[in-house]
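so my prof wants the structure for this chain in the tokens format not the other one, which i didnt know existed until like an hour ago. anyway here's the sequence
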Amino acid sequence: MRVLPLERGFTYGPVLSRRLGRSLGINILPLERKVCSFNCVYCHYGVTPGATLTPAAEDFPGVGPVLKAVELALRAYPEVESLTFSGNGEPTLHPYFHELVFGVRQLRDRLAPHAQVTLFSNATALHLPQVQAALPWVDVPIMKLDAGDPATFARINRPARGVTFEAVFAHLQALPNCFLQSVLIDGPVTNARGDPLEAWIAAVAEIRPRQVQIYSTDYPVAEESVERVPPFQLRRIAEEVSRRTGLDVRPFWVNP
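here's what i got, hopefully its the right format
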């Protein structure tokens, strides 16, 4: 199945985000391949070759070139509303993640003080010192949680060796005021109904995030068997989870 191409620069956009408004993407991953600790069945960048939690440091771009690219982009687009760490994989795997977040925060304060610093992460590296040092400088930490049990976690996220559901869940429980984002899918592997959905609801209720954001596969995906959860079902799930947990649960989708 055809998937979306990788980002070919250290910045991309700004794009109009469903959740963040005008978002300037910041890609601190290699430009020629994905580097991630997950190999999610629904990833719109396709499969992850050799998912790992310990990539080689020399594979990553330097701090200076990334910050220079962000500065140039902010001078060109000072109206952006979010400076968003995302890109070709898992940004927290960068060995100098703390320095990058702090540098982007300084640029934001100087050139676009109205913008938020946002992080999209799969939460697998929250135990690393450089990630823990960076998180206080992130305004909107959006963490992935697609499953509430180890079996569904393994089938949907297909994590790197050494990454466990139990560890990710514990790190999320210890992270105050985070946002959770969850991709709900159907088909042979599902987290949108039955026991997997019930386990996910229970996990979300224990974590107590600031907000839960649910969406489905609005773009091409890595595995052809993955089925999109339609908007009406996302709305129903959001309403049920909100009713049962008291949390702020918001569904998102791309309008056809």
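also thought this was worth mentioning. The mean pLDDT is 95.
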